[in-house]
Amino acid sequence: MSEHRHGAPGQVKEVTSLANPLIKDIKALALKKFRDQQHAFMAEGLKLVIDALDLGWSIRTLVFAKAGRGNAAIEKVAARTVAAGGTVLEVSEKVLTAITRRDNPQMVVGVFAQRLMPLKDIQPKDGDVWVALDRVRDPGNLGTVIRTVDAVGAKGVILVGETTDPFAVETVRATMGSIFAVPVARATTEAFLAWRKGFSGLVAGTHLKGAVDYRSVDYSGRPVVLLMGNEQQGLPDELANACDKLLRIPQAGRADSLNLAVATGVMLFEIRRGALKLGAED
Ligand code: SAM
């Protein structure tokens, strides 16, 4: 590894070797075990990294392609990273491809400290909507739900039971940056059920055997927790019994059910119907 100086003297390291220990640590973030150990995760793309910094996420390392040298926006993010106590690495295309496991990788990758919201800190107010996902398995589904929660202005996501990792590369990619805007909490089923006892809003479960049409409910004027079932098994009885209502989205055709993320999207747009107006976007 050689030192390369520009912008922030001595603080940008130029790396071309895959054997570099800093690069090895970043590559290891592809595996949950190492994400947990380092309490970190990776996000790709300049815009995402800027958004994350603007939202107060703590950056550990900024990696950028040599081709980005002299790019004003990248230099600015590099200076912010250094100011935040992070490391900046200027790397070869080969190194960036290895880190992202992608051909034609983005020019910028950020490594951030993981952040979860403690369940006890979730105290929804009237009009707030939270999505609780029972044992969600698929990273694409989880990422898509987080992105949709962001898009409808819901407050966050509660992961219930053993779920896929919200900080996996595929999940983060599927969120398209919303991982930085949407609080995520994690709870065992027991902890969620205990929390639910202290929650006086509406717990709306969705179930293929639900007796109530999701469009017949008035969701306004109270906090709502939308509870969605696991992709293969749906909601188990202990969670279904904890719901105030079990709702169903009517279907036609041969499909048994909707994809989890699609069903969550349909529900969220109905629950937030009154709050969403064209021209009123932030
Ligand atoms: N085989 C599973 C079952 O029996 O429940 C299918 C689960 S479905 C792929 C995943 C989740 O999406 C469900 O647990 C439910 O929360 C929601 N879902 C999908 N289609 C739905 C529908 N038509 N009405 C209500 N919820 C639905």
From TrEMBL:
Keywords: Methyltransferase, Transferase. SUPFAM superfamilies: alpha/beta knot (SSF75217), L30e-like (SSF55315). One of its GO terms (cellular component) is cytoplasm. InterPro entries: Alpha/beta_knot_MTases, MRM3-like_sub_bind, Ribosomal_eL30-like_sf, rRNA_Methyltransferase, SpoU_MeTrfase, SpoU_subst-bd, tRNA_m1G_MTases_N. The keyword Methyltransferase applies. GO terms for molecular function: RNA binding; RNA methyltransferase activity. GO terms for biological process: methylation; RNA processing. It comes from the Bacteria. Residues 42-118 form the RNA 2-O ribose methyltransferase substrate binding domain. Belongs to the class IV-like SAM-binding methyltransferase superfamily. RNA methyltransferase TrmH family. This is RNA methyltransferase. It comes from Allomesorhizobium camelthorni.
